[in-house]
């Protein structure tokens, strides 16, 4: 759910013929980091934690809003991956291979360790998504990132693992999308096509996959909402933001603030909007697309601040660990405030969960995520050196 970022203030280097074929009409841009991207990731993971936090009945609409924080992750991922590829495609000998290496070592080390941790902690017994218990094939499919295509494996081994499966499936199509999606019109067309295909898949294909689970309500309700076909239309919204960000002048500060306000207001209205024409993930993705583009000129300081940016940088670990943090808070801290005002109970539960998850994530980010990324970079450097040595021998 995380990409690298790049600067739209580019060195407009001239592309070679091969590079033009790979990316027609695309300028070369210089890679750099953006604080607003980290802030967006921070917002996304705070929404996800909110979705799983037990709230008082009067506040449960916040659970609904938080439930779509993953869609913000998806939009930001599509946006930043296009930035990253555009910054690198003219400088690398095998950009597609290197893209997959980077993505694997960005996701796999922390995800695999999370899988082992939750399997050890929770065991192999029945779960809502695995009514017959967890078996070897479900573990293997999770490690292969194809669990998202199986109703009783999609969210079984790692809590929230469905989104990792969707994200990894998306990666398969990113290089092709980068080559073909060169205009906002094409990105919109892709969005519409994927939305239609997703609804058709839910209508005609999902029932076939769900037939063996007629008595398992959790699977029947959630699988059609989580699997890749219904989520796929979310990602082109990130492509649209990328194209607007890199092909047009920066938003004036006034319009940046207006779009950001509209997006946040729409997010709070959205839980009361019923039967949208588009699938719900896409409905929320459009809102998040407005938020991303609104913040792309830097974003308001209340949102783009050092604390939220830090949460965004460790957000993948927070995503993986917040389920454990919730169980720890419920077991050890919640009894201390059971007598206080109910809304305050919700606030205390949420803030202590976030604090615990971020504290643990500071460790896993430095000890697992960063070393994993370093291995990926070292592998790429080795392949580049070998390619250079072979070229000299010719």
Q: What is the domain total for the residues?
A: 1
Large-scale geometry: globular
What letter string, H or E per element, gives the SSE order? Answer: HHHHHHHHHHHHHHHHH
How many helices? The count is 17
Distance between the termini: 41 Å
Q: Stretches where pLDDT falls below 50 for ≥5 residues? A: 4-29
Helix content: 55-70%
Largest sheet: none
The fraction of residues assigned to DSSP E strands is under 5%
SS-based class: mainly alpha
Average of pLDDT: 91
Record field, number of beta strands: 0
The Rg value, from CA coordinates, equals 21 Å
Structure at a glance:
With 394 residues, the chain is an all-alpha fold.
Structure description:
The chain is mainly alpha-helical and 394 residues long. It has one domain (17-393). It is built from 17 helices and no strands. It has helices spanning 17-22, 35-52, 60-66, 69-88, 95-122, 136-143, 161-180, 184-204, 206-210, 217-226, 228-231, 235-247, 253-269, 280-295, 306-313, 315-333, 342-393. Helix 4 (69-88) packs across helix 12 (235-247), helix 4 crosses helix 14 (280-295) and helix 5 crosses helix 17. The longest helix has 52 residues, at 342-393. The radius of gyration is 21 Å and the shape is globular. The chain starts with 16 loop residues before the first helix and ends with a helix. It holds the Pfam family Acyl_transf_3. InterPro entries: Acyl_transf_3_dom, Acyltransferase_3. GO terms for molecular function: acyltransferase activity, transferring groups other than amino-acyl groups; hydrolase activity. Keywords: Acyltransferase, Hydrolase, Membrane, Transferase, Transmembrane, Transmembrane helix.
